[in-house]
Fold this protein.
Amino acid sequence: DKGQARDHWDANSRTDASDPASRLPTGCGHHDHEEIEALSSAKTFTPRPSDIQRAWHVVDAEDAVLGRLATEVANLLRGKHKPIYAPHVDTGDHVIVVNAAKLDVSARKAVEKQYYRHSGYPGGLKQQSLQEMIERHPDRVIKLAVKGMLPKGRLGRSMLKKLRVYPGAAHPHAAQNPVDHALPARARKAQ
């Protein structure tokens, strides 16, 4: 039995030197070298600066869940809602967030979530709870949440510069004709 199996394998593994298809590496199938090269050399799409049209959006943060609001804002800042989106180019829009002080935060998270910063000196660690941060600097809560969802480095920093956050309903950007951007239902507190 073993001898027959070996003979069968030897018969199937022989190649005909005159057949060029038999000399192709395994896995190539019927494609020739030029076709394979053409398939593997697709160009990365890079939008030109003239292609990028920046709109202005107003997002109302009243009764919005922090993380879901931040996800929506980060997608607008990155430009993921546009057909010309490219991850290595800033194609995003300007975003204005109003009513930042009226976020929906659970009582437990308001106390347990901590924000840390360090002065650089020994013993210079400062910490604030989410509740204290919303009372003192509601704009920073949203900016920090969005910052964590953007690319790191200068690309992310340039995207973050297009975010403006205000604790109340008023903002000074009426001249830019911003469009209201409705958050999806899952981003709002369930009534």
